[in-house]
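Hi R.,

Here's the chain you asked about this morning:
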Amino acid sequence: MAATDSPLRALAESRSRWFEHLAEFVSIPSVSSERRHADDVRRAATWLRSRVRDAGIQRATLIETAGAPVVWGEWTVSSRAPTVLMYGHYDVVSPGDERSWTSPPFVPVTREGFMYGRGASDDKGPLLIQLSAVQAWAKAYGRPPVNILCLYEGEEEVGSPQLQRLLRAGRLPRQAAGAVDAVLVCDTRMLAARRPALIVGLRGALAAQIEVRGSARDVHSGAFGGLVANPSNELAALVASLHDRDGRVAIDGFYRDVKAPTHAHRDPAAERLVAKQLLSHAGPRMSKGERGFTAYERGTLRPSLDVVNLAAGQAGGAGGATIPRRAVAKLSFRLVPSQDPQRVARLLQRHVASRAGTGVTVRTTFSKPAKPVAISPRRAVVGAAEAALLSGFGYPPALLRSGGTIPVVQLFAARVAVPVLMGFARPDDGMHGPNERVDLAALAAGGRSLVHFLSLMSKLRTHARRPASVGPYTPTHTFADVH
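And here is the predicted structure, written out as tokens:
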């Protein structure tokens, strides 16, 4: 009998109970961006601590912060065993206009194999599946095969400010000892229904704001047009200068540290599907961006700069003949490995200063810097995750990069251990939109994958975050193999 047979049987026997837990969890409106839900966020943390204990992890506590509490759990089975830190978040985004929902967002409903409700997919379902895998091992053998740490936060949807402070200050238990071998993050998407994915890279980020000020007050365009500098005109010129005709960022030195995409460990069929999914969701007739690269490369392997907000003048008819005193553009950079957010900030400041017109003052400010993350597919822990997903889903995972940014993952990579990004949300789950749902079959396959992952991790030498101890790993399957 294989070592995982009994835990898999225990997992199957407890599945309905964990889905009941998920319904309870989704019913808690733990919206971290709204102060009126602060008590609900704390209630979700307290509820989750109980589920950590249900999994057999008796050392479960709340770490108080200036914001939402962090749920911490610890189960040490052996000083010689590898340690897996399981990360997730129990907060959710606002449901928005509830009239857009078929059923109330915090009254979970199961229809045709999907559970509908805010947070079901992002991230309450995947989080509970982590705990179900630990409990399955505990029921089968009395303990998991590796040391388990749980780290569940309640502010991921607002940028993880408190957790970032804890990580930077080294205030998490055992963090200073460097005793973690892998950080398991299940807050990512699958390639498609029944087709898992491993994310091996995240883009970094930097938010910027360009503010242009002119006259001391708004003035009439009839009396002052052509007489004074118009902040809107000046800002429009600055924004237009940020890209060239080929869609490249036109800031001197921006591409200095950018390396050309390689084809190592890449799956063209999976990449085309990802691009198609994203474009279908956005609804454009065609993709557009930096010339000379595929849609997938532009959205994941290449850096980008987007204007995400422009504001000037008065809203409505009142601003029809007015030169505004102030105009503002908000920018979003997405950065790739080797690019440093601080250097990019200096480059933009230099670019704006060299092109600022006379008669106005220009101020550039920055926020939310996050470095990119690149995870080598040859790491032993990544190999364990690929094999686990193949066992759990029956299909090999695609190894993909994500165009998005998860700031806390960069801190994990720098200060804790190798992140393993294996999520169980489908691309069509509607995360952050109305009628969010989660595929219960995908969660069940995810649970099986995690049972296998913990078993495979137990076979690694401790401190797997150092050079791979079981030899280099090279993927042998591609997405095309499952067609």
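One quick note: The chain has two domains: 5-201+372-482, 204-258+303-370.

Cheers,
M.
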